[in-house]
Write a structure and sequence with these properties.
0% strand; mainly alpha; disordered C terminus; single chain; 184 residues
């Protein structure tokens, strides 16, 4: 359910674009993101960093898109979000004992070495940088319709393929504790 709610503003943006235009879609993603963050706050009494970063960027870049009637601002949003994540993951390599990926997953997964977490974290940094570059390439070398399709299907598809690839890498290093061995 959480994944669906996280994905909902992008889906609504896509539908609004296909039915109306980029400016209506931009207004829809602004409203949907505000509602998404408000709902999350109401339900959990906190806001996730990802939601907060996305909200600020949607408000600023979406607002500029609508105010200036220039779709280029909203086209920058996926790149800025991905590069912000790349910076956060990179910074986590040097701040604290655990990188960001390890902090998110080490309660669910035990691996044989902290080097595994480092490698995965670096892979995510590179992925975020590349997906940001790809977004700019598509946004400024193809028409808006192609970019909207890429934003939904291309970026999502690449992310799924990347996660599957990381899963194959990760399975080689997962440590199964004695408690889970007894249950099998």
């Amino acid at each position: 359910m959480k994944l669906f709610l996280d994905f909902l503003p992008i889906l609504l943006f896509f539908v609004a674009y296909k039915v109306y235009d980029i400016y209506t879609a931009t207004a829809v993603i602004i409203v949907a993101t505000v509602i998404q963050v408000g709902w999350f706050w109401f339900k959990h009494h906190r806001v996730e960093n990802m939601h907060l970063i996305t909200l600020v960027l949607v408000l600023v870049l979406g607002g500029l898109t609508l105010f200036l009637q220039d779709e280029n601002f909203i086209k920058w949003k996926p790149t800025v979000v991905n590069w912000a994540f790349a910076i956060a993951f990179l910074g986590s390599q040097f701040i604290g004992k655990k990188n960001l990926l390890q902090r998110m997953l080490d309660k669910q997964i035990t691996v044989s070495s902290t080097k595994v977490w480092t490698n995965l974290n670096i892979a995510w940094i590179v992925f975020f940088i590349i997906i940001g570059i790809l977004n700019l390439f598509v946004a400024f070398n193809f028409d808006t319709n192609t970019w909207v399709n890429f934003k939904l299907f291309g970026m999502l598809g690449l992310t799924i393929v990347f996660v599957i690839g990381q899963s194959f890498y990760l399975t080689r290093y997962i440590v199964i504790d004695d408690e889970s061995k007894k249950d099998v």
